[in-house]
Amino acid sequence: MSDEELAKDLGPFAALTIGVGTMIGAGIFVLPRQAITDAGSFAVVSFVLGGVIALFTAFSASELGTAMPKSGGAYYYVNRALGPFFGSIAGWSNWLGLAFASAFYMVGFGRYIQNIIGVTGSLELGIISIAWVKIIGLFGAALFTFVNYVGAKETGKLQNVIVAILVVILAAFTILGTTQANVANLPAATGYGPMFATTGLIFVSYLGFVQITSVAEEIKEPGKNLPRAIIGSVVIVTVIYALVLIVMSAAVEPGFIAALSEQQIAVVEVGRLIFWPLGTALLIGGLLATASSANASILASSRINFAMGRDRIVTPDLNEIHDRYGTPYKSIAITGGLILVFILLANVETLSTLSSVLHLVIYALLNVALIVMREADVPEYQPSYTVPLYPFTPIVGAIVSLALIYFIDPRVIAIGAAFVVFAGLWYLFYARSRTTRSGVLGDWIRSRSDELPDAAVSAAASVEPDANDYRVMVPLANPNTERDLIKLGAALAKHHGGTLDAVHIVTVPDQTDLQYASEHLEDFDDDPGALLERARVDADELGVPIETHTVISHRGFEEVFDAATTHEADTVVMGWGGDSHGSPGRIESAYDEVMQKLPCDFIVMKDRGFDPSRVLVPTAGGPDSELSAAVARILRDAYDSEVTLLHVADDEEAGRTFLEGWAEENGLSDATLRIETGDVETAIERAAQDATLLSIGATEQGLLSRLVSDSLTLDVIDDLDCTVLLTETAHDRSLRDRLFGSR
């Protein structure tokens, strides 16, 4: 689905709540016992250090988010800047990192359930013994996978309520604990090595702040409020964690926490000593925190899969939407299966640190992505917020993210490295032949191949995508013209060895919420899916691969341009119903003509029955008539069409010389040549009487010129009886040319 124009109705506080809500979760309710046992009083420093490392990346995420407000978050930024090789590493690391985090949350969930119901030990199944905490975690993971599978809409609102409850409980714990805290109770620090290792263990507590960038388009004044939300949420959460750790350590006798068993939960036991009901509140809070964190991670993972499928890093089949529930059920099911396996195979510390390792890799790449976007001077990269102290901030952010990995258990590092290697090999042996979009870094290196070392150029070339995925997008609206548009699109796609992309744009009133429209599509479309299903059947008959999408938008024709950009179309084939496009003689509307560039080649069909047996191509030269010639050439090869070229000239001999050369240049030397003199429009009408299809380039006459004069192209189309294809090539003309014409 293409990007919709969403209302900017999220204020600064709402955006901040999203950030805090993604991080106030299971980490603080599960890990303090291990952190304090390993690092002593330096456990507080570990949580603060984790927040500082996250803060460096938060600066970079803020700039990237204001410049590229796209779904996919960190994965999208890395893929766009560094290319699909590193995009594969970022995508897989994000996906698996979230799965490890979810497994960690579910084991924590099991511990809280254990404390509530009092069950301990293991379940003996012959030679297999499974701890009850893992059995409970497995049931919890299956439950939340199912919740995401069926798409319960209430979970989003419930998440906000849970976050509010957790903040209140932790605030009460801090305030009440302060009354009993004694600095003398703080345990001795165990050294810097254990402190850094503990930072790696607890870094899972800082995952998720980048998710704020996914709602950047809905935030009021995003240039100001998006950075405040991302950076502010990291700072607030760091302060909360530090206060909780200080109070927890100082409110009990030295050695109390270290003496707790693995089944006992430190924050709950300390809460009971401070104020007995507070322990119960913390028990409930921890249960809610682990549950909500797991649910949010599973939900986020499906979005990562969607972005990877869209870029063909993984198969787009993972994005298949359930007919009844409207969820990417395959992606969710696979993620759920991975979580179950991880719960069975690993302990809490391994799950936590593996998630940290993979996310630290992502954060390092994200900081590098920012540097690449800045140094490559990408024209469309125009952030409304910039990181302070550039390039110091992103460089330090990348270095400290990777440096922290060094202090984590070497066995965990080896496993994380294996996943990173797997992601790289996955790209080289699977995705490279399927994905098509290169990154800014690769483009920059190629553009300077004469200046850079051969080794750098060769390395960049070795990971460039090599897929030939020519995409022909066909917007569909009218069942009566669907088959003819698909036939034409199929001929183009087959010629280029590419793919058809059928898009059904459903327009809803401005007053209608897009989310509501997506859930009640039958109210706005008489037969949802029927048009795209017919397109799939027709494409299968024509032997062309096809993808189908439904776009729900407040706009109609204008949405075609956004969809063409989002789907990275090479050519758009669309129907023409009267003057619906709003700009006689051109593809664009009058507004779009002045404000935008044409994102790709466009072919607009005035459909009077698709019969390509006799094709007429009028030409006076120029890129648009060259596209008309290319279409005629493709139709000739696909349908054995008879092609006639028409040129209207003052001098017949000069006209023939021009047309013979033009035909040779455009691969139509076998076409019939027709030279006419006199009125151009009359000549075209006369020649078209013998044609079944006319392929003609759009006029390059400017907007202001056409407002005070008739458009030749429009008059011709209205007067002819045959089908007309109006072609226009992708362009980025100056404002002067748009207003007054380039020729």
TrEMBL record:
UniProt entry keywords in alphabetical sequence: Cell membrane, Membrane, Transmembrane, Transmembrane helix
Has the keyword Nucleotidyltransferase been applied to this entry?
no
Protein name as annotated: Amino acid permease
Q: Do you know which PANTHER family this protein is assigned to?
A: AMINO ACID TRANSPORTER-RELATED, INNER MEMBRANE TRANSPORT PROTEIN YBAT
Principal subcellular localisation of the protein: membrane
The family database entries (SUPFAM superfamilies) matched by this protein are listed as: Adenine nucleotide alpha hydrolases-like
Q: Where are the transmembrane segments?
A: 12-30, 42-61, 82-107, 127-149, 161-179, 191-209, 230-252, 274-300, 331-348, 354-373, 385-406, 412-430
InterPro entries xrefs: AA/rel_permease1, APC_superfamily, UspA
Q: Name one GO molecular function term.
A: transmembrane transporter activity
Q: Where in the cell is it found?
A: Cell membrane
User: In what way does this protein cross or attach to the membrane?
Assistant: Multi-pass membrane protein
Looking up CDD domains in the UniProt record yields: USP-like (cd00293)
GO CC aspect terms: plasma membrane
Q: Any idea where the UspA domain is?
A: 471-605
